[in-house]
Amino acid sequence: MKQRYWILTLVLALLSGPLLADLGARSVDRFAIWDSGLTNAVTVTANRLVVDPSGVTSPVSIAGTVAQNVTQVGGTSVVTGGVNGSQGVGGLAASGATKAGNPVLAGGVFNTTQPTVTNGQAVDAQATARGARIVATGVDDLVAVGSRTTNGTAVGTKNLGVLAGLVNTSAPSLTDGRDAMLSLDTSGNLRVTVTEAGKVARRIKTASGANQDANNIVSAPTILYVADCTNSNASTNAWIHLYNGTGPTSASTPIVTIYTPAGSGHIYRPGVDGVSFSTALSVRFVTTQADNSTSAMSSGEGICNFSTSS
To answer: Using CA atoms, how far apart are residues 252 and 156, in angstroms rounded to an integer?
Structure first.
Protein backbone atom coordinates (compact mmCIF):
# COMPACT_ATOMS: atom_id res chain seq x y z
CA MET A 1 0.00 0.00 0.00
CA LYS A 2 2.87 2.30 0.83
CA GLN A 3 4.51 1.65 -2.56
CA ARG A 4 1.32 2.50 -4.41
CA TYR A 5 1.06 5.75 -2.42
CA TRP A 6 4.53 6.78 -3.53
CA ILE A 7 3.80 5.85 -7.13
CA LEU A 8 0.62 7.92 -7.16
CA THR A 9 2.45 10.83 -5.57
CA LEU A 10 5.18 10.61 -8.21
CA VAL A 11 2.60 10.50 -11.00
CA LEU A 12 0.85 13.59 -9.73
CA ALA A 13 4.18 15.41 -9.40
CA LEU A 14 5.15 14.52 -12.95
CA LEU A 15 1.80 15.58 -14.34
CA SER A 16 2.18 19.00 -12.75
CA GLY A 17 5.90 19.37 -13.51
CA PRO A 18 7.77 20.58 -16.59
CA LEU A 19 8.72 17.12 -17.77
CA LEU A 20 5.21 15.98 -18.71
CA ALA A 21 4.19 19.52 -19.62
CA ASP A 22 6.80 19.39 -22.36
CA LEU A 23 5.33 16.16 -23.73
CA GLY A 24 2.47 18.08 -25.32
CA ALA A 25 4.84 19.26 -28.06
CA ARG A 26 6.31 15.82 -28.67
CA SER A 27 5.13 12.51 -30.08
CA VAL A 28 6.06 9.88 -27.50
CA ASP A 29 5.50 6.17 -28.04
CA ARG A 30 6.66 5.12 -24.56
CA PHE A 31 7.86 7.09 -21.57
CA ALA A 32 8.95 5.23 -18.40
CA ILE A 33 10.06 6.39 -14.92
CA TRP A 34 11.36 4.19 -12.14
CA ASP A 35 12.21 5.15 -8.57
CA SER A 36 14.86 2.91 -7.09
CA GLY A 37 13.41 0.93 -4.28
CA LEU A 38 9.97 0.85 -5.86
CA THR A 39 8.61 -2.25 -7.46
CA ASN A 40 6.16 -0.48 -9.75
CA ALA A 41 6.90 1.70 -12.76
CA VAL A 42 5.04 4.59 -14.38
CA THR A 43 4.89 4.61 -18.21
CA VAL A 44 3.32 6.80 -20.88
CA THR A 45 2.37 4.74 -23.90
CA ALA A 46 0.45 6.14 -26.89
CA ASN A 47 -0.25 9.30 -24.86
CA ARG A 48 -1.66 7.21 -21.96
CA LEU A 49 -0.32 6.92 -18.40
CA VAL A 50 0.23 3.26 -17.40
CA VAL A 51 1.48 1.69 -14.12
CA ASP A 52 3.82 -1.28 -14.73
CA PRO A 53 4.18 -3.53 -11.66
CA SER A 54 7.05 -5.48 -13.17
CA GLY A 55 9.39 -4.37 -10.43
CA VAL A 56 12.29 -3.94 -12.87
CA THR A 57 14.38 -0.88 -12.15
CA SER A 58 16.06 1.11 -14.97
CA PRO A 59 17.04 4.71 -15.91
CA VAL A 60 14.49 7.14 -17.26
CA SER A 61 14.13 6.49 -20.99
CA ILE A 62 12.15 7.67 -24.06
CA ALA A 63 11.42 4.99 -26.59
CA GLY A 64 10.37 5.85 -30.14
CA THR A 65 10.77 8.91 -32.41
CA VAL A 66 10.72 12.41 -30.91
CA ALA A 67 9.82 15.03 -33.57
CA GLN A 68 9.82 18.82 -33.21
CA ASN A 69 8.47 21.22 -35.86
CA VAL A 70 10.59 24.38 -36.28
CA THR A 71 8.04 27.16 -36.32
CA GLN A 72 10.20 30.16 -35.38
CA VAL A 73 13.74 31.43 -35.75
CA GLY A 74 14.72 34.15 -33.31
CA GLY A 75 11.08 34.69 -32.42
CA THR A 76 9.96 35.14 -36.03
CA SER A 77 7.84 32.59 -37.85
CA VAL A 78 9.68 30.67 -40.55
CA VAL A 79 8.56 30.65 -44.19
CA THR A 80 8.23 27.36 -46.00
CA GLY A 81 9.76 26.92 -49.42
CA GLY A 82 6.50 25.88 -51.07
CA VAL A 83 7.51 22.21 -51.13
CA ASN A 84 6.76 19.74 -48.32
CA GLY A 85 9.67 19.64 -45.90
CA SER A 86 11.44 22.69 -47.40
CA GLN A 87 12.16 26.03 -45.80
CA GLY A 88 12.23 29.32 -47.70
CA VAL A 89 15.49 31.30 -47.75
CA GLY A 90 15.56 35.02 -48.47
CA GLY A 91 18.11 37.82 -48.53
CA LEU A 92 18.60 40.37 -45.79
CA ALA A 93 17.17 43.27 -47.82
CA ALA A 94 14.37 43.55 -50.35
CA SER A 95 14.97 44.72 -53.90
CA GLY A 96 15.46 48.49 -53.94
CA ALA A 97 15.90 48.66 -50.15
CA THR A 98 18.97 49.85 -48.28
CA LYS A 99 21.77 47.28 -48.19
CA ALA A 100 21.82 45.10 -45.07
CA GLY A 101 24.33 42.54 -43.83
CA ASN A 102 27.10 41.04 -45.94
CA PRO A 103 26.94 40.05 -49.62
CA VAL A 104 25.72 36.56 -50.45
CA LEU A 105 27.72 34.81 -53.14
CA ALA A 106 25.79 33.57 -56.14
CA GLY A 107 27.02 30.75 -58.33
CA GLY A 108 26.05 28.90 -61.46
CA VAL A 109 26.47 25.53 -63.11
CA PHE A 110 28.83 24.65 -65.97
CA ASN A 111 27.50 22.46 -68.78
CA THR A 112 29.40 21.50 -71.90
CA THR A 113 26.00 21.57 -73.63
CA GLN A 114 23.55 24.25 -72.55
CA PRO A 115 20.20 22.91 -71.31
CA THR A 116 16.99 23.37 -73.27
CA VAL A 117 13.90 24.22 -71.24
CA THR A 118 10.37 25.24 -72.08
CA ASN A 119 8.20 28.12 -70.96
CA GLY A 120 7.65 28.26 -67.18
CA GLN A 121 10.36 25.75 -66.22
CA ALA A 122 13.09 26.41 -63.67
CA VAL A 123 16.67 26.35 -64.92
CA ASP A 124 20.07 26.76 -63.27
CA ALA A 125 22.11 29.87 -64.02
CA GLN A 126 24.74 28.87 -66.56
CA ALA A 127 28.45 29.60 -66.22
CA THR A 128 31.62 28.96 -68.19
CA ALA A 129 34.33 26.55 -67.04
CA ARG A 130 36.01 29.54 -65.34
CA GLY A 131 32.86 30.60 -63.50
CA ALA A 132 31.97 33.52 -65.81
CA ARG A 133 28.23 34.06 -66.14
CA ILE A 134 26.76 33.16 -69.55
CA VAL A 135 24.25 35.76 -70.74
CA ALA A 136 22.06 36.08 -73.81
CA THR A 137 19.86 38.78 -75.29
CA GLY A 138 16.19 38.87 -74.44
CA VAL A 139 13.57 41.59 -74.76
CA ASP A 140 16.15 44.22 -73.74
CA ASP A 141 19.18 44.95 -75.90
CA LEU A 142 22.51 43.55 -74.77
CA VAL A 143 25.36 46.06 -74.81
CA ALA A 144 28.50 44.23 -75.84
CA VAL A 145 31.88 44.70 -77.49
CA GLY A 146 32.72 42.45 -80.39
CA SER A 147 35.75 40.21 -80.64
CA ARG A 148 36.95 41.37 -84.08
CA THR A 149 39.86 43.79 -83.80
CA THR A 150 41.23 43.75 -87.35
CA ASN A 151 39.89 46.31 -89.80
CA GLY A 152 38.67 44.79 -93.04
CA THR A 153 37.07 41.65 -91.59
CA ALA A 154 33.78 40.55 -93.05
CA VAL A 155 30.59 41.80 -91.51
CA GLY A 156 29.43 39.39 -88.81
CA THR A 157 27.52 39.09 -85.56
CA LYS A 158 30.56 39.98 -83.43
CA ASN A 159 31.33 43.38 -84.92
CA LEU A 160 29.41 45.40 -82.33
CA GLY A 161 31.36 48.36 -81.02
CA VAL A 162 34.57 47.51 -82.86
CA LEU A 163 34.60 48.72 -86.47
CA ALA A 164 34.56 52.46 -87.04
CA GLY A 165 32.86 52.09 -90.40
CA LEU A 166 32.05 49.84 -93.30
CA VAL A 167 33.97 49.93 -96.59
CA ASN A 168 31.85 50.40 -99.70
CA THR A 169 32.96 51.09 -103.26
CA SER A 170 30.08 53.57 -103.38
CA ALA A 171 27.85 55.19 -100.79
CA PRO A 172 25.12 52.77 -99.65
CA SER A 173 21.43 53.45 -100.18
CA LEU A 174 19.61 53.34 -96.85
CA THR A 175 15.99 53.40 -95.72
CA ASP A 176 14.68 55.93 -93.23
CA GLY A 177 14.87 54.74 -89.62
CA ARG A 178 17.39 51.91 -90.22
CA ASP A 179 20.66 51.39 -88.33
CA ALA A 180 23.79 52.01 -90.39
CA MET A 181 27.55 51.99 -89.95
CA LEU A 182 29.73 54.88 -91.10
CA SER A 183 30.57 54.56 -94.78
CA LEU A 184 34.24 54.45 -95.82
CA ASP A 185 35.81 54.34 -99.24
CA THR A 186 38.33 51.62 -100.14
CA SER A 187 41.16 53.84 -98.82
CA GLY A 188 39.54 54.07 -95.40
CA ASN A 189 38.37 57.66 -95.84
CA LEU A 190 35.07 58.59 -94.25
CA ARG A 191 32.37 59.69 -96.66
CA VAL A 192 30.78 62.99 -95.67
CA THR A 193 28.20 65.22 -97.24
CA VAL A 194 28.67 68.92 -96.64
CA THR A 195 25.58 71.05 -96.61
CA GLU A 196 26.54 74.68 -96.94
CA ALA A 197 24.65 77.40 -95.15
CA GLY A 198 22.83 80.04 -97.10
CA LYS A 199 25.19 82.37 -98.96
CA VAL A 200 24.87 85.97 -100.07
CA ALA A 201 26.40 87.27 -103.32
CA ARG A 202 27.91 90.78 -103.31
CA ARG A 203 29.65 92.83 -106.04
CA ILE A 204 32.06 95.79 -105.87
CA LYS A 205 33.41 97.80 -108.86
CA THR A 206 36.11 100.48 -108.79
CA ALA A 207 35.11 104.06 -109.54
CA SER A 208 38.37 106.00 -108.97
CA GLY A 209 36.89 106.99 -105.66
CA ALA A 210 38.62 108.45 -102.64
CA ASN A 211 40.69 106.18 -100.42
CA GLN A 212 41.26 103.69 -103.21
CA ASP A 213 37.60 102.75 -103.55
CA ALA A 214 37.37 101.58 -99.95
CA ASN A 215 34.04 99.85 -99.40
CA ASN A 216 32.30 97.96 -96.65
CA ILE A 217 31.21 94.61 -98.08
CA VAL A 218 29.48 93.39 -94.90
CA SER A 219 29.25 95.68 -91.87
CA ALA A 220 28.83 92.81 -89.40
CA PRO A 221 30.59 89.50 -88.59
CA THR A 222 30.55 87.20 -91.59
CA ILE A 223 32.28 84.31 -93.34
CA LEU A 224 33.86 84.74 -96.77
CA TYR A 225 33.59 81.67 -98.99
CA VAL A 226 34.70 83.02 -102.39
CA ALA A 227 36.16 86.23 -103.79
CA ASP A 228 36.31 86.31 -107.63
CA CYS A 229 38.25 89.40 -108.73
CA THR A 230 39.25 90.66 -112.23
CA ASN A 231 41.58 93.39 -113.50
CA SER A 232 40.77 94.74 -116.95
CA ASN A 233 43.87 96.98 -117.15
CA ALA A 234 46.15 95.23 -119.65
CA SER A 235 49.39 96.73 -118.29
CA THR A 236 48.93 97.33 -114.57
CA ASN A 237 48.67 94.68 -111.87
CA ALA A 238 46.28 95.09 -109.00
CA TRP A 239 46.07 94.01 -105.35
CA ILE A 240 42.77 93.78 -103.52
CA HIS A 241 43.12 94.14 -99.73
CA LEU A 242 40.46 92.63 -97.44
CA TYR A 243 40.04 93.92 -93.87
CA ASN A 244 38.38 92.70 -90.68
CA GLY A 245 36.50 95.90 -89.92
CA THR A 246 34.79 98.85 -91.56
CA GLY A 247 36.16 102.08 -93.13
CA PRO A 248 39.67 100.87 -94.04
CA THR A 249 42.45 103.33 -94.96
CA SER A 250 46.05 103.03 -96.08
CA ALA A 251 46.94 102.83 -92.37
CA SER A 252 44.82 99.72 -91.87
CA THR A 253 46.32 96.21 -91.97
CA PRO A 254 44.64 93.73 -94.33
CA ILE A 255 44.17 90.11 -93.31
CA VAL A 256 43.84 88.86 -96.90
CA THR A 257 45.41 90.24 -100.12
CA ILE A 258 44.29 88.97 -103.54
CA TYR A 259 46.80 89.46 -106.38
CA THR A 260 45.14 90.16 -109.73
CA PRO A 261 47.54 90.26 -112.71
CA ALA A 262 47.10 92.79 -115.49
CA GLY A 263 44.34 91.85 -117.91
CA SER A 264 43.47 88.80 -115.83
CA GLY A 265 41.72 87.70 -112.71
CA HIS A 266 42.02 85.60 -109.59
CA ILE A 267 39.59 83.48 -107.58
CA TYR A 268 40.22 83.32 -103.84
CA ARG A 269 38.54 80.26 -102.35
CA PRO A 270 39.63 79.65 -98.70
CA GLY A 271 38.01 76.23 -98.39
CA VAL A 272 34.73 74.60 -97.45
CA ASP A 273 34.53 76.38 -94.10
CA GLY A 274 35.51 79.74 -95.53
CA VAL A 275 37.42 82.40 -93.62
CA SER A 276 35.87 84.27 -90.73
CA PHE A 277 35.72 88.05 -90.41
CA SER A 278 34.74 88.50 -86.78
CA THR A 279 33.94 92.24 -86.99
CA ALA A 280 33.11 93.12 -90.61
CA LEU A 281 34.37 92.67 -94.19
CA SER A 282 35.74 95.63 -96.17
CA VAL A 283 37.96 96.12 -99.25
CA ARG A 284 40.48 98.49 -100.95
CA PHE A 285 41.77 98.32 -104.59
CA VAL A 286 45.41 99.38 -105.15
CA THR A 287 47.98 99.04 -107.93
CA THR A 288 51.06 98.47 -105.77
CA GLN A 289 51.65 95.63 -103.35
CA ALA A 290 52.34 97.58 -100.17
CA ASP A 291 49.70 97.44 -97.43
CA ASN A 292 49.78 101.24 -97.13
CA SER A 293 49.61 101.84 -100.90
CA THR A 294 47.51 104.79 -102.01
CA SER A 295 47.66 104.05 -105.77
CA ALA A 296 44.08 103.58 -106.89
CA MET A 297 42.75 101.59 -109.83
CA SER A 298 40.98 103.42 -112.60
CA SER A 299 37.20 103.52 -112.76
CA GLY A 300 35.66 100.23 -113.89
CA GLU A 301 38.98 98.38 -114.10
CA GLY A 302 38.58 96.36 -110.92
CA ILE A 303 35.60 94.13 -110.13
CA CYS A 304 35.16 91.68 -107.24
CA ASN A 305 32.29 89.26 -106.64
CA PHE A 306 31.99 88.00 -103.06
CA SER A 307 30.12 85.06 -101.60
CA THR A 308 29.54 85.53 -97.85
CA SER A 309 27.42 84.01 -95.10
CA SER A 310 25.53 87.26 -94.50
So the answer is: 62
Chain Cα centroid distance, residue 176:
25
User: Which of 2-6, 106-110, 236-240 has maximum average pLDDT?
Assistant: 236-240
Q: Where in the chain is the domain with CATH 2.60.120?
A: 200-308
Give the long-range contacts of residues 64-71, CB within 8 A, separation 24 or more: 64/27, 64/28, 64/29, 64/30, 65/27, 65/29, 66/26, 66/27, 66/28, 67/26, 67/27, 68/25, 68/26
What single-letter amino acid sits at 243? Y
| Chain center to CA of 258 | 53
- Residues 6+ away with beta carbon under 8 Å from 196: 225, 272
Please report, as a single letter, which amino acid is at residue 287.
T
Which helix or strand (DSSP H or E) is residue 21 part of? helix 18-21
pTM: 0.41
- Give the single-character DSSP code of 169: S
Closest CA to 167 of 154, 155, 183: 183
* Strand pairing class (200-205; 183-184): unpaired
Query: Is pLDDT above 80 for 152?
Result: no
For residue 230, give the nearest of 304, 298, 286 by alpha carbon. 304
Give rounded-to-5 percent helix, strand, coil for the chain: 10, 30, 65
Looking only at the bridges linking them, the beta strands covering 126-127 and 109-110 are parallel
**May I ask the CATH architecture of the domain 200-308?**
Sandwich (2.60)
